[in-house]
Specification:
By secondary structure, the protein is of the alpha/beta class. The protein folds into 2 domains: about 10-95 and about 210-280 and about 315-334, HUPs (Rossmann fold); about 110-200, Rossmann fold. It has 12 helices and 9 strands. The protein has helices at about 5-20, 35-50, 70-80, 105-115, 130-135, 190-195, 205-215, 235-245, 275-280, 285-290, 305-310, 315-334; strands at about 20-25, 55, 120-125, 165-170, 175-180, 185-190, 195-200, 220-225, 250-255. The strands form 4 sheets. The chain has a 3-stranded antiparallel β-sheet with strand order 3-4-7. Strand 8, helix 8 and strand 9 form a beta-alpha-beta unit. Helix 2 packs across helix 10 and helix 7 (about 205-215) crosses helix 8. The protein is globular and about 60 Å long.
Length: about 325
């Protein structure tokens, strides 16, 4: 039985959220920062500051096998170098810590227990291969869990079974969530969402659970992140409602792409901030390049994060980001 006081933590978070906007940036320490996640960090910082709010930094080291030693400290140093100061985080603490996911297992366990008590979880023994084969049926949708273990797992094969994963049992109907830039996002819970994993068979908690628990219990009012996570948002809406927590405002921003239209990501070997610094670029050079790509400043402009903040309004930022997101989504559909 989980011992963490989930309700007490929620009440503390609600008091913080009632005091004003709380934005956040949550990098994964699997590598150093590159222009793509630097731009997201800059935009999250701008949104929180333009709204007169606090900016929270959280380290998402949930995927421990991929976490690289020293990367968390490097990320903190790089964000500080860029001028994106934070009010709460792994280094300076705050009222709703810890601000590192690997230290929050007890909290995730308590949330999982609450869902289990409501009958919303079931054990799943399917492998990825099993799910892929089932989805390959004539009317199966690729990637959607086919419900194999939903009403009780199949009989064990000789030799036993590996530990199960734990899936959230979705209902019927549509799950809808409003995004400040994309508008309404909707998924059919059975045909587009499917029962999704909250705890993996290796005992690690899944991103979908951790991000909802963290944002809710840190009092985050505004979640600004990359548009690659837009598809996950209806799942998270379902979890917020099941746990009895309010849904934050979502801002899904366009991804930074290269000249060929490919996403710039650290796992794909995108140029790092360290390389840019070695080339002699200053914080103002980097901020200016990132802002110019969204039309926030003229091409070739050099400006610090503070100067950019002073030149913008929240509504201008919203309009520029919404236009850029629409263009990015059209490009993806073409």
């Amino acid at each position: 039985m989980a011992s963490f006081d989930l309700q007490g933590a929620f009440q503390r978070a609600r008091q913080l959220a009632a005091a004003g906007v709380r934005g956040r940036y949550a990098p994964s320490p699997t590598g150093e920062l590159h222009p793509g996640n630097l731009r997201t960090a800059l935009l999250a910082w701008l949104q929180a500051r333009l709204a007169g709010g606090r900016f929270v930094l959280r380290m998402e080291d949930l995927d421990r096998p991929r976490t690289r030693p020293g990367c968390a400290d490097l990320i903190l140093e790089q964000l500080a170098w860029l001028g994106l100061e934070w009010d709460e985080g792994p280094d300076n603490g705050g009222p709703v810590g810890p601000y590192v996911q690997s230290a929050r297992d007890e909290i995730y366990e308590a949330a999982l227990s609450r869902l289990h008590e409501q009958g919303l979880l079931f054990a799943c023994y399917c492998s990825r291969k099993d799910i892929a084969q089932a989805a390959g049926a004539p009317h199966g949708r690729p990637g959607i869990y086919p419900g194999t273990c939903r009403n009780g797992s199949p009989a064990a094969e000789p030799g036993g079974r590996p530990p199960p994963s734990w899936r959230y049992r979705v209902g019927v109907g549509k799950a809808s969530v409003w995004d400040e830039l994309a508008g309404w996002v909707q998924q059919d819970m059975r045909t587009e969402m499917g029962d999704f994993v909250l705890r993996r068979s290796d005992r690690l908690f899944a991103y979908q659970l951790a991000v909802v628990v963290d944002d809710a219990l840190m009092g985050i009012t505004d979640v600004l992140r990359g548009a690659d996570l837009l598809d996950s948002t209806p799942r998270q809406r379902v979890l917020y409602e099941a746990l009895g927590w309010p849904v934050p405002r979502f801002w899904h921003v366009p991804l930074l792409r290269d000249r060929e239209g490919n996403r710039m990501a650290k796992r794909d070997g995108s140029v790092s901030l360290s390389r840019l610094r070695e080339q002699g670029q200053s914080p103002a050079d980097v901020v200016g390049d990132l802002a110019a790509g969204l039309g926030l400043v003229p091409e070739g402009a050099s400006c610090s994060a503070g100067e950019l903040l002073q030149s913008l309004s929240l509504e201008t930022l919203r309009q520029k980001l919404a236009a850029a997101l629409r263009a990015d989504l059209r490009r993806a559909d073409s």
